[in-house]
Amino acid sequence: MTGRFELQDISLAYDDRPILTNIGATFEKARMSAIAGPNGAGKSTLLSIMAGLRHDYTGRCLYEERDLRRWPRRAFARKVGFVPQFLRLEFPFTAEQVVMMGRTPFGAGLFEAPGDQEAVEKAIGTR
User: Fold this and answer.
1) pLDDT in tens, 6-25
2) Which residues contact 62 (CB under 8 A, 6 or more apart)?
3) Does the 5-77 domain belong in CATH 3.40.250.10?
4) Which residue in 27, 60, 93, 113 could disulfide with 107, CB within 3.0 to 4.6 Å?
């Protein structure tokens, strides 16, 4: 995480069932944080809001003091990455290829850009 997240009165319901109610928290940059709770408590839902994947909540989710709903998607993707708890890949990708997919927001087209291979090697510790 490169910046600070601030959650202000975040609430979300599935149908009429509240999942998150008036959640407030601050996650400082360069600090390790944990979100704990029982199954179904809304941990993954909260993280998907913070990753910019959900917009059906009330309240405000700020990253670097800007509401996530106002961040340009590509600019936000260059700052924040999200790896879901479960990831099903339909094709036999290598770990290096999956990490390379994370370079997409930095490219200008469908193919690798200069510096991508070096960034991937640095990320997976082979460089």
Assistant:
1) 999 999 998 989 999 999 99
2) 4, 5, 6, 7, 8, 68
3) no
4) 113
What does the alpha-carbon distance between residue 20 and residue 40 come to, in Å, rounded to a whole number? 10
CA distance 127 to 123: 8
Distance spanning both ends of the chain, measured CA to CA: 21
Look at residue 2 in the predicted model and tell me its pLDDT: 61
Token pair of 21 as six digits: 């109610």
User: Model pTM?
Assistant: 0.74
- Amino acid letter for position 21: T
Contact 18, 11 (CB under 8 A): yes
Q: Where are the domains of the chain?
A: 5-77, 95-124
User: Sign of torsion, CA 1 18 53 38?
Assistant: positive
Integer CA distances (angstroms), 73 to 9, 15, 46, 77, 113, in order: 23, 27, 18, 6, 19
- pLDDT tens figures, 60-92: 999 999 999 999 998 998 898 887 777 777 888
